[in-house]
């Protein structure tokens, strides 16, 4: 198992073209911001909360496992690698103004020692191998986190966390490994934060049989080890080691640093469920072309670079930024004043 110190060393050596740990780390811009969820609420328009979605443009209200072939149906992807037609989505962060209005928090790419990843909204995706790694299969899907959770103590900080980023320069790497040190499950509620980094680490062990389960969780499990290391040994119930999937989001809260804007009670930053960091969650539907992901893991493909040995090509930001779809649940998503929160429920709007 690779330790985070190894990964940190890899980042530090990138400038010299040397990496001690190979992993895919690439940008995905927003495909759409929409109140749909084909994993948890298939076929439902105007689901209980708002999501930002990235990846292949075949994303739809209903996506039956295996039957709905993302690769064949997609004509573009909002991610760096055109071979990745998967879909990835998370809840949206809002700033709650003291006047009762909600404002969607903008996002930026997270550069760090790798160099800038250019995202138009969206998030950065990691696939981190460790030892013998078996890629996801067509039809595979899973969920990390719980959108209804309200207690930080019920969430492992090693898997879901937030970090207060006191610099507006996303190219400055702040702190150590994701979900360590001063990172918190809760969303930092401090005016000194210029950006808030959100990390979601998915289970890396699979039962080897089920592509999905009714709760979208039971077929996978967290193995030994913690954090963004690729994962350690898997339990006998889930013996197949998968690539460790990690989402990384940078919420730019710079425009909300004036404490006079903040509510007199309760949190200023919430997710679209009107809940805090304990309710953070991520959804995943696999959609890589053929065996491209398996070859990328086997061949040690690295970061967001083309990898001919695995058939991976790279498309520039102006190409993946242009891959968008229309909302399937049309509504304003940047902020409104609502007769009752949260900002993405079916309550009537007073002002939009």
UniProtKB/TrEMBL annotation:
Where is the region Disordered? 330-352
Tell whether Signal is among the UniProt keywords: yes
The protein's UniProt keywords, in alphabetical order, are:
Signal
**Top-level taxon in the UniProt lineage:** Eukaryota
* Signal peptide boundaries: 1-20
Can the keyword RNA-binding be found in this entry's annotation?
Answer: no
Protein name, as recorded: Podospora anserina S mat+ genomic DNA chromosome 6, supercontig 1
Q: Where is the DUF1996 domain?
A: 37-288
Q: Pfam families recorded for this chain?
A: DUF1996 (PF09362)
Q: From which organism does this entry originate?
A: Podospora anserina (strain S / ATCC MYA-4624 / DSM 980 / FGSC 10383)
